[in-house]
Structure formats: structure tokens, C-alpha cells
Amino acid sequence: MRNYLELLQDILEHGTPKEDRTGTGTISVFGRQLRFDLSQGFPLVTTKRIHLKSVVHELLWFLSGDTNIRYLKENGVSIWDEWADENGDLGPVYGSQWRNWEAPDGTHIDQIANVIESIKRNPDSRRHIVSAWNVAEIENMKLPPCHFVFQFYVAGGKLSCMLTMRSVDTFLGLPFNIASYALLTHMVAQQCGLEVGEFIWSGGDVHIYSNHLEQVKTQLEREPFELPQLVIKRKPESIFDYKFEDFEFVNYQHHPGIKAPVAI
Ligand SMILES: Nc1nc(=O)c2c([nH]1)NC[C@@H]1CN(c3ccc(C(=O)N[C@@H](CCC(=O)O)C(=O)O)cc3)CN21
Ligand SMILES: O=c1ccn([C@H]2C[C@H](O)[C@@H](COP(=O)(O)O)O2)c(=O)[nH]1
């Protein structure tokens, strides 16, 4: 994960001070890319502890099409609490757009089922895309999608994934986002009978909040460990049948956690 640390350093060196919606203040750069060869280990930040339980449950929750935080709360995950309304609802966010995008004729589109089908039937297609950026629905979402489009690519029996984010909380959010999409790529590859290739991450407004600067410096003083390996213990029937217990992260060595306030 040296490239992640280099990105933090890049923002410290080249970032422009910029006000933001939350009133916290950031330093920010525009347009960056990171590449991870998934066959070389699972891309998990090791220079602080990452709460993997939150990453896995959040992804299973997206895949189930759910947009209420009840499932997350029941599983001890609190990362979405601040954005939900009094009933726990977030509006038509990721899960809804991934699984249940409403078409003009009133039918609903399951983008995840469709993309898996298209990877299996027509691997060379250049249209393996899932979008959460449903323009007509943005105003009903508690937070417009940050990771808003991803594309799969098949070559030489390997599945790669490229993700685009419009806005990136590089200290708190990005380690979660990288781990989440790397996990998703492993799951889709398993379902489609492919090996894993690369995960490519692209960010638009890539920022460090002004109240994360000390935490970032602490992290940059630390030496990263070797990456862990992901083991998926069985092959479920479909992409929608994975359970929390199916995943094991072998040899996850990490430095101590670093607390930071989340900008709301
Ligand atoms: N400002 C901001 N940053 C984000 O990363 C973010 C949002 N807002 N809003 C929506 C979601 C929620 N996400 C979050 C929210 C909180 C943490 C967080 O506090 N992480 C801590 C504790 C992890 C835990 O207990 O599970 C960390 O140390 O990583 C991470 C991602 C990602 N997104
Ligand atoms: O998965 C996520 C979700 C959110 N973020 C960050 C990026 C920004 O810091 C905030 C969203 O604020 P906007 O004003 O809507 O851009 O949340 C993230 O990094 N990853």
C-alpha cells in the first residue's frame, strides 16, 4: 500500500486549501489514480487498523439492495449512522441503484445481476458498467454517491475492475473504498470462473480534512507490512448468497488504529 501513502504525501505537498460543504476545510488535489494487482495480495491499509467487519458488512448490505441502516446496526457497523433519518433510511443510495434502478416504464433494473450475466456471456464486452449516479434521484439521497461508477474488464482469464469516485476522504473513507471494491472484484471473479486481475481506483476531488492532518503524519511515519491474502471459503450459488463468515483475511498485520472525526 505504498501507493496509498504516496497519495497522502502528494496531497500534503500539492494540495490547495479548499472550503467544503461540511465546514471542516480540506487540502485537495484533483484527478488521481491508484492501481493494485490483486494477485499480489489484498489491498488493505496496514499503517493503521482497518475495521474489516464494517467493510464486509457494508458491501453485503449494498449487494442486498438495502438502504436502511438497520442491518448495519444489527451487525455492529455504525459508519452510516450520521446520515440516516429517524427511521434509519438513507433514500435511494447505492443498494437501491445497484439492484433496483427504476426505468421510465416502471420496471426495475438489477445492474449487479446484469453485469455478472454480461461478464459470463460476453466477456469481451466494453459495457460491463454499474452506475449509482442516477441523476433524477440524487436529490432524494441523504448523500449523493461518492463511488459512483465502476467497470469490469476481462482479458487473459482475469477480471479487472476500475472505480471512479467524485469526492474522496483520503484518510477515513478511501481505505474502506479500496478494500470494498477489491472484495467485490474477488467475488465477481469467483462467480464468473475468472482469476483476479487489477483494481484501478480513480478519484476526482481527492482531499485530506484539516482535522486529519496529524493522523496522516503519524501514518506516514509508519512502515507498511506485507499485504494479507483473502480466502473465500466456499463458492456460493450467486453473488447475492455470500455471508460474512465466507471471508477470511489471512495474515493481516497492521499498526494500531488511529482515531479521526468524520466530517458530516
Ligand atoms: N466525510 C465522510 N467521509 C467518508 O468516508 C464517508 C462519509 N463522509 N459519508 C458516507 C460514508 C460513511 N463512511 C465512513 C464513515 C465513517 C468512517 C469511520 O469513522 N471510520 C473509522 C472507524 C471505523 C469503524 O468503527 O467501523 C476508522 O478508523 O476507519 C469510515 C467511513 C464513508 N463515507
Ligand atoms: O464511500 C465514501 C463516501 C463518502 N466519502 C467522502 C468524500 C467526502 O469527504 C464526503 C462527501 O461529501 P460531499 O460534499 O458530498 O463530496 O464523504 C468517501 O470518501 N467515501
UniProtKB/TrEMBL annotation:
GO terms for molecular function: thymidylate synthase activity. This is Thymidylate synthase. It catalyses: dUMP + (6R)-5,10-methylene-5,6,7,8-tetrahydrofolate = 7,8-dihydrofolate + dTMP. DUMP binds at residues 21, 126-127, 166-169, 177, 207-209. Its EC number is 2.1.1.45. CDD domains: TS_Pyrimidine_HMase. Belongs to the thymidylate synthase family. Bacterial-type ThyA subfamily. It is found in: Cytoplasm. One of its GO terms (biological process) is methylation. (6R)-5,10-methylene-5,6,7,8-tetrahydrofolate binds at residues 51, 169, 263. SUPFAM superfamilies: Thymidylate synthase/dCMP hydroxymethylase (SSF55831). The active site is at 146 (nucleophile), 146. It comes from the Bacteria.
